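User: I'm putting together a teaching handout on how sequence relates to shape, and I'd like one worked example. Could you take histidine kinase from Geofilum rubicundum JCM 15548, show the sequence you're using, and then write out its predicted structure as tokens right after it?

Assistant: Happy to. First the sequence, then the structure tokens directly below it.
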Amino acid sequence: MDYAKKIKQGHICKDKVIMGKISESLLFRKFRAFLNRHLGPSSLPGEGIQYWRERIFHYFSLAVIFFGVALYLYYGLFFLLSEQHEFLAFSTIIFVTSLFALSVPRIPLRFKVGWVLFILYLTGSFLLFMGPHTNIGMLFLFACSIMAVTMSGAATGLWYTLFHAITLTAVGFYWFSGSVVHADPPDVSLHTYVNLSISFMVLNTVTLAPLTSLLNGMMFSIKKERRYQRILRKEQEDLVLARQKAEESDKLKTAFLSNMSHEIRTPMNAILGFSNLLSHKSINESEKGEFVDLIRHNANNLMSLVEDIIDISKMESGQFEVRNAPCQIHQILTEVKSTYEEELYRKGSSSVKIYLKEGLSDEKLQILTDAERLKKVLSNLVSNAIKFTDKGYVEFGYSLNNEQEMLFYVKDTGIGLPEGTEELIFNRFFKCSNNDDKLYGGTGIGLTIARHLVRYMGGDIWVEPRTNVGTTFCFTIPFQKIVSPANEKMKLWPTAKVNWEGRTFLIAEDEEDNFRYLEVALSLFNASLIWARDGREAVEVIKKIKQIDLVLMDIKMPLMDGYTATRAIKKILPKIPVIAQTAYAMQGERAQAIEAGCDEYISKPVNYNTLIEIIQRFVPGKLEETVRQPD
């Protein structure tokens, strides 16, 4: 009767059957856990072939000790009864040193393995030379070979196999050559000994060959796995680092967008606000002039912000370039000083003074560098110094480090830098302050731009070691002195009276507001204007009207862009001056415009004075009481 029927009929309790299965399963699991814990994989720390060799050696040494105790008791008693005291002392020394070497944890594994191999070989050879224990002696030699391959590798196992062959040959010669007289002959004949020796060597070789292959495969697999683990760990570390950088970048970008919104809205608020007030009837002429100045000031700040964003985009994309040309260094420094003195005066700040210290007395000193970039760096540093200085002074200037390098500095008596931020402040969007009670404006890219600009010019920038008061920035640029006298660049100022009466200018512009600006600006000088709303219309105008003196060509227009229109116009009137104007101020725009046939290039927003000067260069007008000043 099967179990199901017995349970159904009530002969066997169902609970008893279930408990029996559980008990059997539990015993099996305990037995399997015992085997895994003592003979298989373990949760103990360790990995690789070395870990498994330590575990193998542990159980191998236990077996050696177990059989070693039995052999020592047997042979020790035998040597004692036969009064062979020298053999008793020898075996005692071997046994005690083996126990010591295997039981002390601090002894290196390599030494333990070497000692055990030596003891196994010595014991096996001793038993063979003793005579009556040939089989046991060969067993010890075989154990020595197995352990040599397992614990020390194939090369060591091969050497011990060679030693065993030599030892067996020496033992055979010792017992069967007749050169030595023996009182106690061996327990085997010569024929049997030769067969045993050959069988031993064959078995030893046949066993060691696959064992060596198995161990080499295991070692290769373990090494490959560990290499994959290292790669995986490295990738995990890279992912964690990338995540941290991404999170930090997100935080910085969020802060940047918040700062950017504030920095854009602040001047825009002033521009829109004062623009609305200009139309109010109760505003007098004096106040209107003040409002116009404020609108111009905030518009310049907004334009500077846009240029900063464009510059850092160019730098990070590798599209930035430096244009070196002769410039008067003292003039640049004086302009920076005047600009920020005017800024302090406008803010009504009398507690901060600006000082300029020039390293050389030659006021007409000329160097070869990018004047606009140098002025930008100085402006960023001086502006930063003024922003973080409530009282005291801001001092800037230069000195000559040597004949090849100029050192510039900007020093202030402001709040200073928090410790450990000397390099962080040059990172994008990073902003720091020692004063939590006051909010400091800025986008966090001014110093980043300054570092990029200085390095593009061939120098370096840094912060001087922390001092008790304020902060000192230093930067270097190559010193290339220009010996020839400077050609004063004459600039046409708004007070000049230029008369372009009888001159006709074609303005290709798709935005009505931009055309209106040019129309008002140029009508002050009696110029006649023709408006073309796209490139195709500009070409049609040129085909119909040949008496046009100059073309102001916008680049980005519908139907036909400015480059294509310029090429078509130059085919019709090759000598007509074409001045490109564009809001795109990226690298290559100027070169592309010149290649298309444009004679000059001006970026938007179009500066009033620059526009008049360029047109006057190509289409000279009558000058009446013209005022010219050096730039």
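A couple of points you could highlight for students: DSSP finds 17 helices and 17 strands in the chain. The longest strand covers residues 392-402.
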